[in-house]
Amino acid sequence: MLINPDKARRHLETVRYYAIKSCFEYMRTLLNAQGGLDMNGNEKQAPPGKITPPLPKPVAPRRKRIWGPVLLASIAAGITGALLVLLVMPAIFGVNPYDLVRGKVKSVGVGESSGVSANKINVVSPTQGATNVSGVASKVTPAVVNIDTKSTPQETMFPFFSPRVQEGTGSGVIYSANGYILTNNHVVSDAQDITVTLASGEEFKGKKVGADPDNDIAVVKIDKTGLPAIAIGDSDKLVVGQLAVVVGSPLGFEQTVTAGVVSALHRTLGTSSLNGNQNVLIDLIQTDAPINPGNSGGALCDASGKLIGVNTLIASTSGGSEGLGFAIPVNTAKKVADDLIAGRSISHPYIGVLGQTISESIATQYNLPVSKGAYVTRVVPDSPADKAKIKTGDIIVQIDGKPVKSMDDVISTVRSHKVGDKISVTYHSGGSKKTVELTLEEKRNTPVE
């Protein structure tokens, strides 16, 4: 829009006048409210010819009120308010407050340089310079669905309190034309009722085919054919800086499109759900494309409109988007989805330990031999770690030739291998440093790696 300099100057002069006037009016009101004080804070004398009525006899001694400090504080507050108006309002109009007070605000006439085009003012978009994503949106949005869930918590110890139905909203991607929908496990994990809404507005009851909590992937089936399945890309070919387009239902706003870039690759993050379940996700794609609650299970696409990831979580201090979104690589999601649809079990290698990350403060407090590593808190009987004589209290400092700085490093390294692979583990035990070779086995139904 255009800003009229003359109009802006008049607004600012008016603001200055009323700000100063309001300051004095505020001071005068305060003086009158004090019950008879003059500008110096002294008691005013009664007008000539008037008789001041005597004060009633006090019942008990009263403390004399000290009006001076109160008056000064009130005046200071009034001046502060006026100054705030004088400083803030000019800034809104793009004028230096000092110039306003000195009366240096003037209009810019024809032929004078104002630094702004005489015809228009360009509004800079936060995404200016990014590729137009309308083409990507038109390809992807028909293949993205909204998923509404309902679940009833287990009965509590108080049977007279009926459990309250919990509702949730997430997103999904049409994986095949015959009704298979790809989404996150945490979107449908506890759902007893699933409703899938297509981009056309049609609603269908959904049934969970299967899920893989370790990779946070699930597949839902609806009774519908001829669906617009999304094109599948290749997440192994991603490069940092390339275009990333997000489509989903943030906060329930269906078919929302946002854009950014691939900020980083191969991220590892620990997660925890509302019911207390903890997990570690590996090999994640990081993007600065805005992702909010409700985007989970939705599409992360490249410039050609192909699926490169399934949005799964954000890192945030506010609960909303802060430019730190993460997605499961499509190559991982595709492999899991294919196994679930085919009825095959999902393979997860493990060594059989539960551990805790060691920090410098923990190392100092417990006088540990190292300041970084993974402290073993539990070993599964007859697991690869148990067979290698690793025990509770040992500290893993290296795995598969890579230094271990946290328990997440152990988890991500193990999961990057297959069942049957051999890896080396270096650890501290009983004052000595040891190295053993383990053969990875199929993970059992236990929260260990």
UniProtKB/TrEMBL annotation:
Domain of life: Bacteria
Pfam families membership: PDZ_2, Trypsin_2
Start and end residues of each PDZ domain: 352-416
SUPFAM superfamilies according to UniProt: PDZ domain-like, Trypsin-like serine proteases
TM ranges: 70-93
Gene Ontology molecular function: any one: serine-type endopeptidase activity
Protein keywords: Hydrolase, Membrane, Protease, Transmembrane, Transmembrane helix
GO biological process: proteolysis
PANTHER family: PEPTIDASE S12, PROTEASE DO-LIKE 8, CHLOROPLASTIC
Record protein name field: Serine protease
Biological source species: Candidatus Anoxymicrobium japonicum
